[in-house]
Write a structure and sequence with these properties.
By secondary structure, this protein is mostly helical. It has helices at 2-20, 23-29, 34-44, 60-68, 70-79.
Length: 80
């Protein structure tokens, strides 16, 4: 039964990225085209209220990773 849990985690992560304003940072990093950007925003928008806000004083990517918690911060350290 890990499938539904992982889907929920993916939805929560996308919603937090959208709510914190970091979705643009992610899409820019992947050099996403207009269609992919529109699709990602359309899928994340209905769930935006589920995401964590984070500290508004921080940059969007930092705010999103901080709001998601320590596991995602470690993930961010691995990526940098």
């Amino acid at each position: 039964m890990r499938g539904p849990h992982n889907i929920w985690r993916l939805i929560r992560t996308g919603a937090t990225l959208e709510r914190a304003g970091a979705m643009n940072v992610v899409l820019d990093a992947f050099e996403a085209g207009r269609l992919l950007r529109a699709t990602a925003r359309a899928f994340a928008w209905p769930f935006k209220w589920l995401g964590y806000r984070g500290d508004p004083a921080l940059p969007p990517a930092t705010r999103a990773l901080t709001a998601l918690g320590p596991a995602y911060i470690k993930f961010g350290q691995v990526l940098s």
